[in-house]
Structure formats: C-alpha cells, structure tokens
Amino acid sequence: MRRAAPLLVSLGLVAAVVVPYLALGGGRFEPAPIADPCELRERPDADGVAETLERIALAGVDGVACELGVSREELVLALRSEDALTAFSEEQGLDRDELERAITDGLVRAVDDAEEAGSLPGLVAPLVRRAAETVPPWLILETLESLGEFLPG
C-alpha cells in the first residue's frame, strides 16, 4: 500500500485539476473571432493621454484595415518592422508607397477625429499629427506609445 500511495496521490492531484477544467468548459475552447475592422468598435473612455494615443492608433489602423479589406490584426503585425510591411504589401498585392500613404492618412484622420471629439488636448494634437505624418509606418505604433509616456496624464 505504501508503494501505491504516491501513485494514488498523483492521480488525485491530476483529477483535482482536470475535472474542474472540463466542468468549466476547458475542453470546448474556441478562439474569439477576429473583429471586422469596418464595424464601429465600442471603446471605453481613455484614462490619460497614453490611452488616448493607443485608441487613436487603433482607430486609425481599423480605418486603414477596412479600406484594404484586411483585419486590424494583420495590419498591426505588418507594422512591427519594415520587412514585415514589405512582405504584407507583397502578399496583398499593394504598392508599398500607396500602403504607407494609406496608413499615414488613416492615422491623421484618427488624430483629427480625436481632436474634434475633444478626447485629444489641443496642445497635444499637433505633436501627434506631426508624428503620424512623418514617422515611418513600421515605427508609428511604437512612436505613439513612446510619445504618450512623455505627455501629462
């Protein structure tokens, strides 16, 4: 019996993990569907400039993804590096310069919308707009995130 005790304890511990996992639906996992970038997303109010910048970037990327007929997630992955953006433009059969212009225009539109809605302070809006217009697209999300760290909350 002493030799079987570790085995019985191990089986009991496994059952203590597996049974609740299955009872709570762990065996029926389905990934969340990718949202349509053309559908308006409900976003809670931003808490500070950094969150506002994040929402502006996501709104801009949603708009561009909708125009291009791709998911926001695909476009965000394309923005992780210059090589990724080039690969994305080739995969989608898009001219690289036109893609960069579409991304810039989409981000500038999102900045304009946020300023008009009053969610982006008037003193900050020109800085963010200038970043959207001049920073290469593969650096824009990182730049907006960094910019938010230096601005008042």
Describe the structure.
- With 153 residues, the chain is mainly alpha-helical.
- The protein is built from 7 helices and no strands.
- The chain has 2 domains: 1-30; 49-150.
- The protein is elongated and about 75 Å long.
- The model has no long low-confidence stretch (mean pLDDT 82).
Average pLDDT metric: 82
Number of domains: 2
Low-pLDDT segments = none
Radius of gyration: 23 Å
Sheet bearing the most strands, described? none
Specify the structural class. mainly alpha
In percent, how helical is the residue content? 55-70%
End-to-end separation in angstroms reads: 65 Å
The portion of residues forming beta strands comes to under 5%
Oligomeric composition of the shown chains? single chain
Please report the number of helical segments.
Answer: 7
Large-scale geometry: elongated
Can I get a quick summary?
With 153 residues, the chain is an all-alpha fold. It has helices at residues 5-23, 49-68, 72-78, 82-92, 96-117, 125-134, 137-150. Helix 2 (49-68) crosses helix 3 and helix 3 (72-78) crosses helix 4 (82-92).
Task: Please name the defining characteristics of this protein.
7 helices; mainly alpha; 153 residues; 2 domains; 0% strand; elongated
Topology (SSEs and partners):
Elements lengths: L4 H19 L25 H20 L3 H7 L3 H11 L3 H22 L7 H10 L2 H14 L3
Helix pairs in contact: 2-3, 2-5, 2-7, 3-4, 5-6
